[in-house]
Amino acid sequence: MWTKEINEGQPPRCQAMTGLRGDQVTDLVGGVFDLLDGVWQPIRGRRRALGLYRAVVLTLYLMRRNEAQAVAAELFGCSQSTVSRIVRRLRPLLRQVTADFAGQIRQQAKRSAVLVDGFLAPTGNRTGVPELFSGKRHTCGLNIQAVSDLAGRLVDTGLPVPGARHDSKALAESGIADRWANHLRPGGPGMLADLGYLGTAAITGTRKPRGGELGQVRRACNRAINSTRAAVERAIAHLVNWKVLDTGWRGRLTDFPEVLRTVTGLEIYRTWG
């Protein structure tokens, strides 16, 4: 049951800060409240600087905008250390809140064909971490494999792999090939991809032979595949609107897989919820 502390200091509107509708934010706060067993403010001792609603909005804001914690502290009227503690506490809970819903969407998507493509999440060069530099994209980061339905709605992402990995190799290393194995089997629903996935079991176009031209039929097939496959690029564009995946991850690389799972669940919830 909701208590007064949830709404303490609740801002009237937060879609510009979080990318989520007000009702979606409210539902997430309720889910987090349940995972906390209805206790956010301590019964004894010093009260938390932010009520639960504002704390959830703060956590969403940092993932959506990827602002420095010191900037968020000024905006929300607390200290940087408070921001750090809140994010560490609530980010895993937001992933748990969206996990069941995201799982249902994945099961639903497995009934029909899907699309796959990769993108680079910038991380900067990290000492002692090899193979982050992507020659294709000319920057350091992690290769993320994203799966969408034919309408361009995100349904899954794989584990991050070093940016030097080619998409055809990252498909297997990220776990996507295993999770969507039925789509890659002959007679399965099918997984469409670009020419970067040649050599995998995904459905791709045909590369033009060196010094030659494709026939009319193969050119028509390539156009049809590319026209359908373009929807996954829209899904990726919406996913990287969570700027923590687009403008450079500042934290430890060991934390990034959990951040990616959280953002994936939130984007699926935003799109399908």
UniProtKB/TrEMBL annotation:
Keywords: Metal-binding
Span of domain Transposase Helix-turn-helix: 54-97
Protein's name in the database: DDE Tnp4 domain-containing protein
Domain of life: Bacteria
All copies of domain DDE Tnp4, residue ranges: 130-266
Metal-binding among keywords: yes
Pfam families named in the record: DDE_Tnp_4, HTH_Tnp_4
Claim: Metal-binding is one of the keywords in the record: yes
Organism of origin: Phytohabitans aurantiacus
Cofactor(s) recorded in Swiss-Prot or TrEMBL: a divalent metal cation
Annotated InterPro entries: HARBI1_dom, Transposase_HTH_dom
